[in-house]
Amino acid sequence: MRIKVTIVAGDGIGPEVTQEAVHILESVAQLNGHKFQFIEMPIGGVAIRQHGSPLPAATLDAALDSDAVLLGAVGGNEFNSLPPDKRPEAGLLQLRQALGGFANLRPSIAYSALSDNSPLRPEVTAGADILFVRELLGGLYFGEPRSWDRKTGVALNTMRYTRDEVVRVARVAFELAQKRRKKVTSVDKANVLEVSQLWRATVVEVAAQYPDITLEHQYVDACAMHLMNTPRNFDVVLTENLFGDILSDEAAVITGSLGMLPSATIGGKVNLYEPVHGSAPDIAGTGKANPLGAILTAAMMLRHTAELEQDAQAIESAVQRVLSRGYRTADLARTNQPNQQIVTTREMGRLVFEVLNEIIDRRQAMHAV
Ligand code: IPM
Ligand code: MN
Which CATH number covers residue 47? Predict the structure, then answer.
């Protein structure tokens, strides 16, 4: 199988974590006889500096012409005073829109090796395994009109959803729940917002086609609390764009570090894969970045684009094994942990690579018997 991947590593720690993810993909390819073709293109702040645009036409063309896009991170302090449409983030939002993926999958898992990394007690987080399905192309991020009138001192964004936009993302959530613990929690603010009332009514309608799934509704404020109190009660969380943005960062607390979280955006012309964390310019180039979010994102690419489920799982097991052996990047380091070994971005990538090779070798030896 030949898979063409556009790499848009972007800013800050983006390039260093993406590089580790690419190494992992290459080793999977080598061991299994698949071929990845990687094309590197600029996006975000680097693209603004080199080409005057956060999403140059050549980057967009390459992305549209590939089987998958792997993104690192965008954003940097020097752009903080620019209006939204001139910032590095605008490049990512334009890319998301052009690729068309509307369902952003963000798993948040309490790994037992990291149970002490969460400020939540281990008995609260143990076994938590949540999959956020964040609607990615609607709501406040893209709704028109939008403006900031400096003269009148009035700014405006529009939360807008159509029934069809809710139907399509709800279907993805219900279908994923069928392969998991068969529960969907739909999150909205239907006690205040008409958009949320449309959301809730539509989700209820879609749910009728999935009688095997238990559907519950939560208001977003309550959900923010329940996620921390009883994370194990969640299976699939279905929500709109901004709520999903906020809740998925909050859910990083369950895992122990934002650096651990991967994501996949599906449903459009080309799937987009990006870790949930940002560009962390303060630690860029210091070897402190955690590449596991990007590596787990590569696993999601194998699952959702390449249909290599076994290899996706092999990467996920390799990550867990490396963590249970005590290896930690700086974000995961804890005081009073004698068994931990602090490693750099590069070393962490290398460790996962080695364990992954062991896992795949063993699998192949088993098949040969
Ligand atoms: C995320 C990020 C982005 C978002 C930014 C960088 C535009 O926070 O992927 O969660 O808000 O969607
Ligand atoms: Mn975010």
Answer: 3.40.718.10
